[in-house]
Design goal:
heterodimer, A: six-stranded mixed beta sheet, B: 400 residues, eleven-stranded mixed beta sheet
Amino acid sequence: MSTATLIEPPAFEPPVVRLSGVTKEYPGGVAALRGVDLTVERGELLAIVGPSGSGKSTLLHIVGTLDLPTAGSVTIAGHDAAALSDRRLSALRAQHIGFVFQAFHLVPGMSAQDNVAEGLLYSGLPRAERRKRAARALERVGLGDRMKHRPHELSGGQKQRVAIARAVVGEPDLLLADEPTGALDSASGEAVMELIHELNQEGATIAVITHDTEIAARLPRQVRIRDGRVVEDSGPRGPLGSGRGAPGAAEGCGPETAPLPGEVR
Amino acid sequence: MSGRPVLRPARLGPRDILHTGASGMRSRPMRVVLSALGIAIGIATMIAVVGISASSKEQLLRELDKLGTNMLVVTPGTDLLTGKSVPMPKDAAGRVARITGVQHVGATGSVPATVRRSEKIPDTITGGIQVQAATDELLTTLRGTMRTGTFLNSATGKYPSVVLGDVAAGRLGITSPGQRVFIGGQYFTVLGILDPLPLAPDIARSALVGWDVATGRLGFDGRPTAVYERSADASVDRVHDLIPRTVSPRTPRDVGVSDPSAGLQAKAATEGAFSSLLLGLGGVALLVGGVGVANTMIISVLERRYEIGLRRSIGATRGQIRGQFVTESLLLSGLGGAAGIVLGGAATAVYAVSSGIPWVIPAWAVAGGFGATLAIGTVAGLYPAVRASRLSPTLALHSA
């Protein structure tokens, strides 16, 4: 594959997420994360799964650059988070990361379209363009007929789909979904997971943070967290994984093969 | 990594800044009203205080304008040696009229008689009303107007007829021309009643009779006690200098010349100086309003942790969060200020209409009041805004 190696370096994109040795300790000596290594390649769909208190929320914050680790390095879309000022981290979030929260966090009293357009507020796009893209994103999540509805006029599932539209409207390199189905009934949750799968098939890189092993099991890759450590990683094998997974697999293989036996959760 | 484009947060346009600043207000309109109310009351007080003083002053200035500042009064001076009043010559009015630039001359002279409603009233009860002889041109010179009836003229001035000042008419109980009053042993028919004369307030308490009747029937010596003179504006100073020498060439310093409009001007100046006590009260209200806005903002920041976290997660910088809350505070106090200006203007209007004076709100008061609210808004919003921007975005998103 000499030709491939010649072509690949320029075409090679850094992984969307690369954590190495990430440790997060809170004042008082409580360690939420203890040396986490995690690489997420472009186009992956993975579950970060663990019981409450396992550190998965902290992991979400660190991957989302909402918080910085006390040790280790975090690289998001090629940017070293530790080297960036708060302003630049904000810009990184605006341009590269989308968030979906369990509690939706929609702005009350604002139409669905405006709520989605809010996701582009800090992108520098003009208002008309933001609204146009918001309309497109709402149509994408199947709410083209709910543009003018306000959050209180929407069902839980619809709210979460609006929140997802808000997160993807900026076409981020990484979509972080924190318990996206946690506040939904099973049917709505099903539809939301369906949507997440579809978005992934269209090329989005998505990390779903959940405590629900059932949901996690249906995603292509599971990263299990317990007591601040990655105890199992089924390794990158997203839709693009076969060709490009090779370099990532070298890192991912270790944890994938190591633990298993006792890990049922 | 080196090849990556530098991350630079986008700037928000003015419209977006307003939009984010107003987002908190949209969701809680009642709180907006209440917290803006304090500011509104403060500004309204200040605007009303300034507006009412300015309106009163404007009223006086307009009156002055109407009455003119080109009138002089010539009165007998006092002799330096004896300290007694030096009477003016009988033809003093005629002499003043001959000065170049003098347009109108009127004169009054004290008549040693009393005026009573009828002969049945004892002559010791004068009601403080003096009888004065008046020349025909007196009313024109004073720019006075009749409340009712007519003034004396060269014909009626020869017969027992009288014109009453408004206060005198009230004390005598005269309401219309044709009634009679008892002066110096005979009845005089009332010709008319004067409106108040701001430039010659003593005439309001006088009964004016004709010069000829006064000398013929009431024992008047014919010497004027006051000569009123009106000249062109430009020649007032020159006329002022010429009067003493003209009236009394030998002893010019025994003639007093005064400008009655000077008193009105001084009054206008004091009316314009609004009460600093009331203004201070408005200032305190404004301060309390500012504290109210700051309080509202702090609560708003606490309540909206999630929104702040959300905004941080979708890419707002700390500066943009600060800007949002300062903008909100500015909008709150700006609304209060605008409402206060309207309220203060309305209060002034009510006062002006009820007391019949013109409605004036000085532009500097409006600009100053609004400027003060914006300053207060900035100060009140700064601390909550800084607090909001320092909130950890993760804390803001933790659970719901």
